[in-house]
Amino acid sequence: MKDKVEVKSTKFKGIEQNPSLLGFGCMRFPTLFKDKPDIDEELAQKMIDYAYDHGVTYYDTAYPYHQGLSELFVGKALKKFPRESFYLASKMPSWLIKSKDDAVRIFNEQLGKCQVEYFDYYLCHALGEEQFKPYLLPGVMDFLYQMKSEGKIRHLGFSFHDTVEVLDKIIHTFEWDFVQLQLNYLDWSFLNAKKMYEIVEDYGVPCIVMEPVRGGTLANLCDESQKILKAAKPDKSIASWAIRYAASKPNVLVVLSGMSNMEHTTDNVDTMTNFEIVDEKDQKVIDQALEVFLESQTIPCTACGYCMPCPHGIDIPQNFKTYNRFAISKYKGSFIHEYEQLLNGSSADFCVSCGECLELCPQHIEIPDRMSEISNLIVELKNK
Predict the structure, then answer these.
(1) Residue 102 near residue 68, CB atoms below 8 Å
(2) Cys bridge to 62: 36, 91, 148, 322, which one at CB 3.0-4.6 A?
(3) Statement to judge: residues 226 and 346 lie in one domain
């Protein structure tokens, strides 16, 4: 008998099911061609079969994944298994909803594509302040609640990409059964994932985790960070630390991993079989590795302000803070927006390399050179 991946014994309010702690994310299947969405169905089927045989029961797809092909493939791939033996999640494409009729049409289309009569978990997809507005249109949420009362949706929730304040607003506007958040040991403090997790926990519903490895970032740390993790657990992958970190949070129901090859699948299954919670000792290792990683990726400014005021009006700490957020998040749009919000004359563009700040910086940062890098980067990103 095969060992099975972990299933949390904790009973969450409103969740009568016990899905596997590891969820199979169906957004990054292997493809037949580099720049096309066509799924390598033979390999992807083997990956799903392996995951299913080892106890993975949660499968997460969505309307836009693989440009609409993910739901079709998942429907075929899971058809061979008894319907009651797995839990299927899909999502309403918020950006396509202009009326209740759109919601009705798309939902029924999704049931057909997935070849099921109900979704175990159904999400309003990628909510933020703007993306939430379609659900305030007449009849849209009424329809989703109707589907839930008819058993076509077993649990209704939403995935989220916005600020803490917007999350707090959305979660208290309607009744939800769960919330899907981006949560990992980098974003826990850096992008307020901790506060968001606490809001969901206080609301009284479980959290489903997306991006536990942050799109591969936490599987490809700098060499020094990888050495720290490997010294602690030589037989475990770098990615496994991130998966375990997210799965160790007590209010987490499922951790999704977007698997794109068999190696990802087998490693994730291994990580979540005979699962080891991240304890205090492990947390210290993660903290050490993360500190080294951040130092390698960011400008080591502590915002002490010793370099201020700049005689030419540059807000040096704020420029570095804005850059550092981009260096970790890689969110181009946010970086450009934040940079342009700097007060007139206080951005890196206005640095004249006078050098007066150099002797004042206790971190010995080459401030004029870094200002030039930031200014050039902004120009480069705008021209892409």
Answers:
(1) no
(2) 91
(3) no
Same domain for 170 and 36: yes
Six-digit token string for 369: 């050179």
How far apart are alpha carbons 96 and 375 in whole angstroms?
37
Distance CA 292, CA 310 (A): 29
User: In CATH, what number is assigned to the domain containing residue 129?
Assistant: 3.20.20.100
Residue 214 lies in a domain: yes
Chain segment 110-129, per-residue pLDDT in tens: 999 999 999 999 999 999 99
Residue 124 DSSP symbol? E
Residue with tokens 């440009």: 67
Q: How far apart are CA 210 and CA 190, in angstroms?
A: 16
Range of the domain at 377: 316-382
Q: Which two tokens stand for residue 225?
A: 């960070």
Question: Could you tell me if residue 132 is inside a domain?
Answer: yes
pLDDT at position 326 is: 87
Q: What is the pTM of this model?
A: 0.84
d(CA 19, CA 366): 52
With b for 16 or more beta-carbon neighbours within 10 A and e for fewer, the 317-353 pattern comes to bbbbebbbbbbbbeeeeebbebbeebeeebbbbbbee
255 Rama sector, left if φ>0, alpha if ψ -120 to 50, beta otherwise: beta
In angstroms, the CA 366 to CA 370 distance is 6
From the list 232, 179, 237, 180, the residue with the least C-alpha distance to 213 is: 237
Total of domains in the chain:
2
Please identify every stretch of the chain with a pLDDT value under 50, giving residue numbers as ranges. 1
Q: Which residue has the tokens 């980098």?
A: 186
CA distance 175 to 169: 12
